[in-house]
Write a structure and sequence with these properties.
alpha/beta; single chain; globular; TIM Barrel; two-stranded antiparallel sheet; 20% strand; Xyl_isomerase-like_sf
Length: 256
């Protein structure tokens, strides 16, 4: 049964003040795993200790492009030590978005190295990979067409797919079987057209259908994330968990 995790970027304000205490709170709320976005100066031993204490699974780590290029073996060693096999490239800076062919070749090299040591490389999207094209394809599709499934898996951010004007359900179906991780999030479009991420069920994204589709497509984890929280971030993830429990009680095939 699919598990529910949290992208820790959501609660970065609390992690900066109390890393261990924040992870304890995440576990108390019912999240089963965490996806890291930095380790806040902790050693692998310290991270592993708090994971063991709380029972949280290290389901992945967002690892900057530059670190994947220039410090990959160090990142691999750290993540292996905490029990994580999934490294995700989370974002591409604007100055790099004009050289997609080079980025794709880099992903092949990084993915190959990961595969050689039992790690798995993912690419996590925003909206620009869908609104930009490479040849006749959206960049996101070009990436996953050019880099083999053996070297690169899909971490689909369903909310950004929606914001880009595409159907998340179609994208989930397209990458069925290649998408162990899905970012599960909600948003509202503000008056100026910009997005504001909100708690699950509080926005305009059909998050229940997205969860159903992801489960059908073989996802291992639904990963809750809010890029920015208008409310207290710990309260926000509690509100999202209330929605998740209600969804599960209504028949959603989630292990919560």
């Amino acid at each position: 049964m699919v598990k529910v995790g949290l992208q820790l970027y959501t609660v970065r304000d609390y992690l900066e003040r109390d890393f261990e205490g924040t992870l304890r709170k995440v576990a108390e709320l019912g999240y089963q795993g965490v996806e890291f976005a930095g380790f806040y100066g902790r050693t692998p031993e310290q991270v592993k200790a708090i994971l063991d204490e709380t029972g949280l699974v290290a389901l992945g780590a967002h690892t900057p492009y530059e670190r994947l290029l220039h410090a990959l073996d160090e990142e691999i060693a750290f993540n292996k030590a905490i029990g994580n096999r999934y490294l995700a490239m989370p974002y591409l800076a604007e100055e790099d978005r004009g050289r997609w062919d080079e980025v794709i070749e880099d992903l092949k090299v990084i993915g190959q190295r990961c595969a050689e040591v039992g790690m798995v490389l993912f690419y996590h999207n925003h909206d620009f990979e869908l609104t930009q094209k490479l040849g006749d394809k959206p960049v996101l599709d070009a990436i996953f067409f050019e880099v083999s499934e053996e070297l690169l898996k899909v971490e689909l951010d369903s909310c950004w797919v929606y914001f880009a004007g595409f159907d998340p359900l179609e994208y989930i179906a397209k990458y069925s079987g290649r998408m162990p991780l899905l970012h599960w999030k909600d948003l509202v479009k503000k008056a100026d057209g910009s997005p504001e991420t909100v708690e699950l069920g509080k926005g305009e994204v059909n998050v229940q259908d997205i969860a159903d589709a992801a489960i059908q497509a073989g996802a291992e984890w639904l990963v809750v994330e809010q890029d920015y929280c208008a409310n207290d971030s710990l309260k926000s993830i509690e509100t999202s968990m209330e929605f998740i429990r209600a969804y599960a009680q209504e028949g959603g095939k989630l292990n919560v």
